[in-house]
Write a structure and sequence with these properties.
The chain has a domain of 92 residues: Alpha-Beta Complex (Aldehyde Oxidoreductase, domain 3), CATH 3.90.1170.10. The chain has a 4-stranded antiparallel β-sheet, covered by helices on one side. Strands 2-5-4 form a 3-stranded antiparallel β-sheet. By secondary structure, it is an alpha+beta fold.
């Protein structure tokens, strides 16, 4: 799974979002490396194990002929308190890392596949992610 080699701060603040303002990505919104891409249609956080599950599906479909790019990286830590622990007593322990993704962001890109095969591979990868996705071409 993906996670940073080294971090300056072990625990971050939550970075809550104003629900009245809709966040739309401005970076990473075009297919830059491959021919086809998987685009996020809503804003959410994607955990590193979800990225890994989608990557496994894509790498199986792409094989040695094609090429795969992961355009997001989980560098934001999230914490969780153990079950049945009362409130207070500090922040929970580090649980894992997430990649905050805004709507419009390209998550994966593939190249070297025929269009039907690429679309099917990206569709399968999109089912492993906790958000609505769309397949886009260059």
């Amino acid at each position: 799974m993906l996670f940073p080699k080294k971090v300056k701060y072990r625990k971050w603040q939550t970075m809550r979002r104003n629900p009245n303002r809709v966040g739309v990505a401005t970076r990473g919104v075009t297919v830059a490396f491959g021919s086809f891409g998987l685009k996020a249609m809503e804003a959410t956080r994607i955990r590193s194990n979800q990225i890994e599950a989608a990557r496994k599906v894509l790498s199986r479909s792409v094989g040695k002929a094609g090429r795969l790019w992961i355009r997001i990286f989980p560098d934001m830590p999230y914490t969780k308190k153990p079950a049945e622990v009362k409130l207070g007593k500090g922040k929970g322990d580090l649980e894992g890392y997430v990649a905050p993704v805004l709507a419009g962001r390209i998550i994966f890109e593939v190249d070297g596949l025929a269009e039907p095969a690429a679309r099917e591979a990206l569709r399968k990868a999109g089912t492993k992610l906790p958000l609505k996705t769309k397949i886009v071409a260059r």
